[in-house]
Amino acid sequence: MKKRLTLFLVAVTFSLIALSMVAMRSPGNATSESISTVERLSDNLRLESVETDTRASSIAEVLEIARAARVAMAGNLKDYTARFVKQEVDTSGLLGETTEMNVKVQTRLRDGSDNAPMRVYLGFESPESVRGREVIWAKDLHDGQLVVHEAGLLGMITLRLDPTGMLAMRGQRYPIYEIGLVRLVEKLIERGGKDLDNPDIQVTITKEVPFDDVSAELIQVKRSKPSDEEDDFSLAEIVMDPNRQLVLSYRSFGWPADEGEKPPLQESYAYHDIQTNVGLAETDFDPQNSAYQFP
Hints:
Elements (H helix, E strand, L loop, with lengths): L1 H24 L3 H23 L2 E4 L1 H18 L2 E10 L10 E8 L12 E8 L7 E5 L7 E4 L9 E3 L4 H4 L11 H14 L6 E11 L2 E10 L11 E7 L4 E8 L11 E12 L19
Antiparallel strand pairs: 1-8, 2-3, 2-12, 3-4, 4-5, 5-6, 6-7, 8-9, 9-10, 10-11, 11-12
């Protein structure tokens, strides 16, 4: 009996791994639809730019905005919940499907320093292939491992994974601890610093661009020619909430293979329905939380 149970659990685990790989890497029609959606959104933003206030800017100003946002976060961003939508090219060069999930994050800034252990909960909503998946990661809990379960019949076991291991990184561009509003603005500062004196950069800022119910600002950074940097892009689009000093969305596009083609999407991250300082506790990052579906 014990041997049969062991074999059953091994079979389920391998089925889970196979399903995760397929779900994360499927490049079929859903990926094409996701690309079209991203392109339409980009076009809509540019149409709004014509009707609103667009002005020339600079990397220096973008850095000033990003640094001010980072300072504001350090002072008052302890935790938040949001609906997170992402699409990205993974480490193998494949553009994945658009993925939507509910997130809970305790930031590493919550104790007045930069040293509090970050904690993350993800509840997947789409695509249908991953709907119901739940993931928990906390730097100071669960031995620093990802705690994961899938939906449906495959959700009868819980996996614990190295967050930088092959399975955890399958279909992903970055490890889970790179997620979140704080790290997003820090990356903008890092990338902006590389281009501070770059003459091949053009920057514009457009005010009153609608994003959900926010009157946001759209920052567009365009390159006239490729750089030698690993994170090179032809166009980056940043949507800022000027009142809360939060980055709501970031997208970057690569270089088209042929002249006249639209630039390919590299990464797209958007945070909707952000609620800050809601009082998240350790139980929000506990697989035994009765609100979750961990077995």
